[in-house]
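User: Design a sequence. Structure:
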């Protein structure tokens, strides 16, 4: 079963929920793969204190121009919608590599065979094991190199690696910590999920982002539950209005407290902390998620 945890803007507690859900499920004996697809700000390995090893580079195709064969026809520059291929009027094109998304359109439109395909590394997929007592989970983490602009290829590469590892390990759960926002990289992650957990906070910005996520998941037709983080920080009427607009349930309320911050900084999952109120709420969330699998198996 694939559970995607998402949260609009950064800082809503999406990674805290994803990591604690994965740990809670793994610590009750489920086989779990956690995929950190927040490729511009991956932190799950820090929250779990996991050492990662690079599994493979993330590469995108890039054009190399044979200036001997180029006729300066400008077909490639006119098809390049990222502005990576540019030419001064009537001149031969040159490439700004950082802007190239690797879409490949220029390879196909060059009738003179003057573009060769090369590869450029834009990031890495890494993996590691988090262990707690007799249990463990596998973490797959995607990372986009600094200065790179194209998130989607990195998200896709990390997601494919996580899906393949989940299959190999016979995982009961693939938990996906999505990128921030509601862009193409996030919708790709959400579209493959059996369940989406939309994490929000009781603030106007949190409610605004929640509205955008719920609109997206309702269009995708994916089952969605809401988790309110920083519960108690402010009245929740604003979140309640959005939730009732889409008719989705709030399944957990993680209290606003210092222990959440301490656990975040200390790399200790809340669900493993004795007496933690937030940990108890997150363990209950994991039980609710697990009940879907039990119901399916029944
Ligand atoms: S499409 Fe080919 S021939 Fe035309 S400008 Fe580009 S590289 Fe040169
Ligand atoms: S691969 Fe796509 S983005 Fe890159 S230069 Fe060619 S057309 Fe532009």
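Assistant: Done.
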């Amino acid at each position: 079963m694939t559970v995607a945890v998402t949260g609009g803007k950064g800082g809503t507690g999406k990674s805290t929920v994803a990591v604690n859900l994965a740990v809670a499920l793994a610590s009750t004996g489920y086989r779990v793969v956690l995929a950190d697809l927040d490729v511009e700000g991956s932190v799950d390995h820090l929250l779990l204190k996991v050492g990662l090893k690079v599994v493979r580079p993330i590469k995108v195709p890039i054009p190399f121009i044979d200036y001997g064969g180029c006729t300066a026809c400008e077909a490639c520059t006119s098809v390049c919608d990222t502005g990576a291929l540019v030419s001064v009027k009537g001149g031969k094109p040159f490439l700004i590599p950082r802007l190239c998304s690797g879409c490949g359109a220029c390879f196909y439109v060059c009738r003179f065979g003057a573009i060769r395909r090369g590869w450029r590394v834009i990031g890495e997929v890494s993996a590691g094991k988090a262990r707690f007592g007799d249990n463990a989970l596998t973490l797959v983490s995607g990372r986009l190199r600094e200065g790179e602009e194209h998130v989607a290829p990195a998200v896709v590469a990390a997601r494919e690696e996580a899906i393949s590892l989940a299959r190999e390990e016979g995982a009961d759960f693939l938990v996906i910590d999505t990128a921030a926002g509601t862009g193409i990289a996030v919708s790709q992650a959400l579209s493959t999920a059996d369940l989406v957990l939309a994490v929000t906070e009781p603030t106007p910005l949190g409610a605004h982002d929640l509205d955008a996520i719920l609109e997206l998941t309702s269009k995708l037709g994916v089952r969605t539950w809401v988790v309110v983080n920083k519960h108690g920080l402010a009245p929740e009427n604003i979140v309640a209005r959005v939730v009732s607009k889409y008719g989705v349930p709030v399944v957990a309320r993680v209290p606003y407290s210092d222990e959440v911050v301490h656990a975040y900084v200390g790399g200790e999952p809340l669900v493993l902390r004795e007496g933690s109120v937030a940990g108890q709420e997150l363990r209950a969330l994991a039980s609710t998620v697990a009940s879907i699998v039990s119901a399916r198996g029944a």
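The pocket of iron/sulfur cluster (ligand 1) is lined by residues 65, 70-76, 93, 109-110, 112, 114-115 (CB under 6 Å). The longest strand covers residues 115-132.
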